[in-house]
Automatic annotation (TrEMBL):
GO annotation, cellular component aspect: apoplast
Protein name as it appears in the record: Pectinesterase inhibitor domain-containing protein
InterPro entries: Invertase/methylesterase_inhib, Pectinesterase_inhib_dom, PME_Inhibitor
Gene3D superfamilies assigned to the protein according to its UniProt record, in alphabetical order: Invertase/pectin methylesterase inhibitor family protein
Coiled-coil residues: none
Predominant localisation class: secreted
Amino acid sequence: MRSFSSMESSKTPKLPLCRETEEMGSCCFSISMVALLILIHFATLLNSSLAVRELLGTQTNTEFIRTSCGTTTDPGLCMTTFSGYASKIQASPKLLASTALSVTLSTTRSTSTVIVKLSKSQGLKPKEIASIRDCLEELKDSVDELNRAFAEMGSGGGKSFELRMSDIETWVSAALTDEDTCMDSFSGKDINGNLKTTVRRQIVKVAHLTSIALAFVNRYAAHP
């Protein structure tokens, strides 16, 4: 029979093996942690780089809008209206002109709806009713012309670039004339002051947006 001491001595070689296994496990864990930290570090750097790039792109796009608006008849309205479209427009004169036409068309339609509601107000005098009716007719023409201009801007075939832009400029100019004519309908002294103020405020905004759109269209036509 083997003695207790000999049995203990026979187990002794196994202890270094256990320590070696533990050390290898600890080493592998340390390497894994280092690798994970490196991955996290690079992911953070990548995200930071993308965020900086996106910020710089946004600033560049906004500056393009600001510079473009600076040459229009109403830079404040222009910047307020189109700065929110900076990421869509980027620095594209075509997208700027197209967006301006789209926004102006939508605003003109909304304004027409407001004036239709005004036409149903109680107590309007015959002259006021006639003025509103004339204005609505002009706005209807303006919507039609702006719609044609916007559709033509998105059209790619059939006509030459010069002819397409000439048609667009003609339609937008006609829309602006219609809006001015609408405002003239409320220039008489026999028009209620509140009604005149309300309508003219609506139409002035539409006319300014149309003028801005025309400026952007003209610029794109000259420098496509």
